[in-house]
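Dear support,

Our group has been running a series of protein-ligand predictions, and this particular one with zinc ion is the one our PI (initials K.S.) wants archived with full inputs and outputs. We had some confusion internally about which version of the output was final, so please treat the block below as the authoritative record. The input we submitted was:
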Amino acid sequence: MKLTVLGNNGPFPAAGGACSGYLLQSAMANILIDCGNGTLANLQKIVSIDKLDAVVLTHLHSDHVSDIHIMKYAIEIKRRRGIFDKLLKVYAPAEPAEEFNRLVAKDAFILEAVSDDTKLDIGDTKLSFARMKHPFMDFAVCAENRGKKFVFSGDTSWTDDIVEFGRGADLLMLDAGLLEKDFTEGAVHMTGAQCGKAAAQAGAKRLLLTHFWPDYDIKDLLAEASAYFSGAEAAVIMKEYEI
Ligand SMILES: [Zn+2]
Ligand SMILES: [Zn+2]
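Confirmed final output from the archive:
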């Protein structure tokens, strides 16, 4: 599999940046994970919209979904003009219902709710899900293909469940939305240090940090993570990561 980072910020983009979005490609599947603001433009540098096999939304906060509403326009109008006729499969948590219902678009999407039990086969790639800890219902996603395993936390505060779900991942990508200096009880993201600890406890082979607060120096997040997991990396927009 190959992961291309389309956006690495949250909850708003840095100048010229983009929020959460990642293209996961294999021999037989193009899967977009999250569709935050700015990611649709970056996606189309690599594949056109009609080449997508599925979109998976970890949760329904705007920095993870805002471009899906623009994607809807593209598909509806291209279908109406006969440019292509397919509907795009979109998998998302069912809550909050108000946000989920905004994704209903029968002329653009085939929408399905995901849960802890959901197992999907998208082309040659198997997807599974695990509930994380965040104000909106959020699922980490695991993609497995040819004996390789990729796990992304979505947004989450510390939970032992990401350690369990990420066990042995070839690439573990985690929400590093906080530096330790900004951690408070009730924080809704992990710190760089917590990401390092989670990756070490999970026995992950590689750790990729993402969801960067735009004002942070990413070197500080890497330093925190590297204290627990050597070789921690930071997600870079348009960079490819082989899994
Ligand atoms: Zn977010
Ligand atoms: Zn969120």
